[in-house]
Amino acid sequence: MNMNDKLVSIAMNIILHAGDARKLISEAGDNIANLQLNKAEKKLQSAHESILLAHKAQTNLLQKEANGENIPYSILFNHAQDTLMATTTEFNCTKQLIKLVKTFIKNKQEEDIK
């Protein structure tokens, strides 16, 4: 397999795992909207595992280039990195949203007790 074929394979692997994570994050958002926070957290844990797989594939290639291996430019790999970055951002925002909702619920419960 030549380097271009390897690069396509790596890029598709990143896109696949980032896409899986993005779907799980969206489902977690639906869970949050329904105040199913435990389900949302489980979805985010699964999403995190997919993000780690995508990140590992990206990092392996970047390490090769850092070690002097000639890696050709690929718009597909660029797209894969962009997809991973966007998915990671969505993950972080959704994680923060869960914290926000938990805080809101806690404050509301404390207010109802008063």
Compute the number of structural domains: 1
Largest beta sheet, briefly? Answer: none
CATH architecture: Up-down Bundle
Q: Quick one: CATH class?
A: Mainly Alpha
- First-last Cα distance: 69 Å
DSSP strand count: 0
Summing up helix and strand content along with how strands pair, one would put the structural category as: mainly alpha
Q: Percent of residues in helical segments? A: over 70%
Number of helices: 3
Tell me the CATH superfamily: Phosphotransferase system, lactose/cellobiose-type IIA subunit
Uncertain stretches of 5 or more adjacent residues: none
* Pattern of helices and strands: HHH
Task: Estimate the mean pLDDT confidence.
Answer: 95
CATH topology: Methane Monooxygenase Hydroxylase, Chain G, domain 1
- The percent range for strand residues is under 5%
Report the C-alpha radius of gyration, rounded: 18 Å
Quick one: overall form? elongated
In short:
Helix content is 88%, strand content 0%. By secondary structure, the protein is mainly alpha-helical.
Annotation keywords:
114 residues; mainly alpha; Methane Monooxygenase Hydroxylase, Chain G, domain 1; 3 helices; 88% helix; elongated
